[in-house]
C-alpha cells in the first residue's frame, strides 16, 4: 500500500495535470504546477488551483512553500507563509482535498502564471503530539473547515 503521494482530483482528471516531481536526488520539495492560467494584479490575492490532492500517513502533513524563483523574480508570496495540508484533508467532502495555493502579488506589475508553470513546492513531514493531546474532531470540509478560532 502506498504511504504518501499525489493524485489528480476528479474535476481535473481530463486536463493533463502533471503529478509533482523532485528535480534532483537531493531536493526536499516536489514541484507543484498551476492547473490553469491565472493572472494576479498588483496587491491581489488569488487561490491558484493545482488539480491535485495528497495522501499521507495520519502523523504527517504536506508543507507548501513558494518556489524561490516565484518570490524573487515574479514578486509572488504565499499569503499564509507556509501552507499546511493535513492528512485528513485528503478526499474531504467539500472539495476532495484539492490543494489550492493562495498567492499574493506584492510587486508593481501584473503577473500571469501559465498552466503547467511550477509555482510551489510540497515537502512531506512528520509531526509530534503533546502528552495530553485530546483531539477528537473529524474533518468534513475543505479550506477553513476546522474553524476560525
From TrEMBL:
One of its GO terms (molecular function) is magnesium ion binding. Its EC number is 3.6.1.23. The keyword Hydrolase applies. It catalyses: dUTP + H2O = dUMP + diphosphate + H(+). One of its GO terms (biological process) is dUTP catabolic process. It is an enzyme of class 3 (hydrolase). Residues 17-147 form the dUTPase-like domain. Keywords: Hydrolase, Nucleotide metabolism. InterPro entries: dUTPase, dUTPase-like, dUTPase-like_sf, dUTPase_trimeric. Belongs to the dUTPase family. This is dUTP diphosphatase. It comes from Veillonella dispar ATCC 17748. The gene is dut.
